[in-house]
Amino acid sequence: MKNPRELGYHAIYNVIYQGGYSNIAINKILRKNELDGINRGFFTELVYGTIENKLYLDYVIQKYSRQKLQELSKEVLVILEMGLYQIREMDSVTDFAAVDESVKLCKKVFPKGSGFVNAVLRNVLRDPGAFDIDIKAPLERISVEYSVSPDIAGLLADQYGIEEAEDIMYGFSMKPKLYIRANSLKTTVSKLAELLRGEGAEPEETEGVKDALSVKNLKNIENSRSYKEGLFSVQDISSMKCVRELGPQPGEYILDLCSCPGGKTGYIAELMKNEGSIDAMDISENKLELVKNTCRRLGVSIVRTRQNDATVYSEDMAARYDRVLVDAPCSGIGIIRRKPEIRYKTIKDISSIYNVQRKIIQNASRYVKPGGVMIYSTCTINREENQYITDEFLKKNSNFERVQDDIMMLPSDGESDGFYICKLKRIS
Length: 428
What we know:
single chain, 428 residues, alpha/beta, N-utilizing Substance Protein B Homolog, Chain A, 8-stranded mixed sheet, 4-stranded antiparallel sheet, 18 helices
């Protein structure tokens, strides 16, 4: 059996230095390597935890390194980050083991750095204040403490104020609740809850969100019989609220413009009682295969898929739909706790999506029938991707109006991912 620390090193290196995605890197390694339950858990926590805390761990490393971090080899830096995370956060690992295993790993992947790794980690252990933060500037402090890039920390502080920005960043560190959605085509919330209790899970109904259960101790989800039979889907309540705000009705013709992986598409069909028609679109056939698989599992038969670039207007779709859902591509700042690599995005990374969003909402609006409804949503809390986009759209399109106040869910609320929902109506 492979050493979970070595596997963790490769996953972290891939995400930080090769542009990989944490969930994909983890799943790929777990598929290729047989790890027992304990080692799977250790590996997963080590990868996510190290990536989530990278800026803070680097701050600690710099205190004990004469070299600037930019001068250290990438291999050494990753191993030091992993070692520090084990020392500080993983109670199952002794300090001795954290140091010893880090040195062994370095000897394997970058031998000439092993002495340096040993020295830094031992110096940390000798200092009772090693993990203290001594930064006076509030913005710099919260960037380091919550391990969020200075650009994102600054953006949030500008838009929400420093105190609320810190609350939001604290929310990034909270473990997300697991929510599932009962498939009303096949079961009810109460029947599903009873079934899951029989499987050892602990489901609870979620106030104010019909069809939703929050669940603890639900293991091996994708291999469970109830999941394979399509009795439920894993979906955050923010996404469920988005679909409910769309308000799909049986018999309608609905467009889900950026539909992959199909969670919202499936829920739209469920609320339509599998009556009517849904066009589910995305930019690649690979993405649409995920949508098709989701619909098959749920027993949904009213969905047609079509490869489509949402930034390019399609004349044949003009004014065809009763309702259009635009879950736009975005920076993902609202789901940082699920995808920790997002923490380190720059303003350049974030702003590159703005024009894409403008094109998509403009094109989508032309697909809505007069009297029809359009939802523009994102999983970010950056106002430049949310209110600024919809405000600009409404200034240019007098044939649309807001139906209600926009909905902004913040991770600091503790219940859901960060999410934005704007409901618009075509009035002419």
